[in-house]
Amino acid sequence: MSILVGIVMGSASDKAVMQHAADTLSGLGVKSETRVLSAHRTPDALRDWVGDIEKRGARVFIAGAGAAAHLPGAVASLTTWPVIGVPLIAPNAVANGLDALLSIVQMPRGVPVATVALGEAGAANAGILAAQILATGDEALAGRVRMLREGMAAKVLAG
Question: Which of 39, 99, 108, 144 is the most exposed place for a label (fewest CB within 10 A)?
């Protein structure tokens, strides 16, 4: 099975939150690869990784970033595949992560980044959204996503 989703974050301190995206994808049977790369400190390594993982089959990217949160946009500038940005709450965050949320959601025309909620919920939702995007061409994956959603509904109804 080839890697279908590339997950990247700007700092090793983001791993605990971004692991929720990887775990969600794994639970849905979607192979992913996770890296720590910086849009500002390792731009060449980021460009090389995006190009390499695309060659190995990646079709969706998830990028988590806090504060200035340039990483999702940097990834989007390097690929035409969908990019999902996860705003993270950095130690120097403004308004509990609002800075990252606004940085990711305000991409210029022509370089879109889908943006999910802050933190763990956003990372898990990014995994689900990546699977939903891939499921448009994979009926078996679509069925697994449906089962996940039905399971969530059953938990709510069970009270």
Answer: 108
Q: What is the CATH number of the domain that holds 52?
A: 3.40.50.1970
Query: What's the pLDDT score for residue 67?
Result: 84
Q: pTM (2 decimals)?
A: 0.96
Q: Return the pLDDT at 96.
A: 86
Nearest CA to 89 out of 107, 104, 108, 78 is that of 104
Number of H helices, E strands in the chain: 6, 5
- What average pLDDT does the segment 56-71 reach? 95
CA distance 43 to 102: 22
H-only helix segments in the chain: 15-27, 43-55, 71-78, 98-105, 119-135, 139-158
User: Is the separation of the CB atoms in 131 and 120 below 8 Å?
Assistant: no
Are 28 and 144 contacting, i.e. CB atoms less than 8 angstroms apart? yes
Report the alpha-carbon distance of residue 10 to residue 18 in Å, rounded.
11
Instruction: State which amino acid sits at residue 113.
Output: V
Q: Please tell me the total count of domains within the chain.
A: 1
d(CA 72, CA 118): 14
Domain span at 39: 5-158
Q: What does the mean pLDDT of the chain come to?
A: 96
